Amino acid sequence: VYMAADNDLESYALQNLKQMERAGFSKINLLVLLDRSEAYDETNGNWTDTRLFEVLQDKGSSANIISKRLDCPPLGLSKDSATELDMGNSYVLKGLIDFAKSNYPAQKHALIIWGHGTGWRYSSTESSTDSRAASRAVAIDDKTKSYMSVKDLGQALKDTCLDVIGFDTCFGSTIENLFELKDCTSFIVAGPGLSPAQGWNYKELLEKLSASDF
User: Fold this and answer.
1) How confident is the model at residue 214, as a pLDDT?
2) Count of H helices and E strands in the chain?
3) CB 72: neighbour CB atoms within 10 A?
4) Considering the entire predicted model, what is its pTM?
5) Would you call 139 exposed, middle or buried from its count of C-beta atoms within 10 A (0-12, 13-18, 19+)?
6) What tens digit of pLDDT does each residue of 84-93 get?
7) How far apart, in whole angstroms, are the C-alpha atoms of residue 162 and residue 181?
8) d(CA 144, CA 105)
9) What's the pLDDT tens digit per position in 61-105?
10) Packing angle between helix 150-157 and helix 90-103, nearest 10 degrees?
11) Residues 6 or more apart from 126 whose CB is under 8 A from it?
12) Does residue 100 sit in helix, strand or coil?
């Protein structure tokens, strides 16, 4: 899960990660790259950098995140130090996928893009190339004031051979987005309009996946 929460969705990101920990699932290795904000949520130690987690199941009642923090050399991440990554940089996404596929072999791989998404929209008030690009984006990062354009997303996912790509974002399934990713995956799960800020129900999703034969 590519969780770009260095923005006003930070609290929901932590809630969604906790939902994952609450799920009773098996046969799945679940990694979450989470980038937090300095402005919106002070729970769970109030760290504000970017961290990679292997999701562990939590049968307790605490709201604290218990998942295992990982080293990720391709991204320069250490479990013992703070590193701020630009989630709007497509090389970060590509590095995460390469790391996951190299270190967690599986028969099938899925990617979920989590955060703000603007689909592929023009506005009559836009007057610069940058503003037009920002209206076709995912992974909006307040700290670095950046975003990943849909075109760059397609380039990052080229030849990754993913089985499923999910967009827990707004405007994920606009036809222009789907066209950019048509050669990157077999299936895309997304919505065409606004999505609830609280995100998907990850506990239910993981438990249904675990109970299925994929």
Assistant:
1) 67
2) 6, 9
3) 22
4) 0.93
5) buried
6) 999 999 999 9
7) 11
8) 32
9) 899 999 999 999 999 999 999 999 999 999 999 999 999 999 999
10) 30
11) 132, 135
12) helix
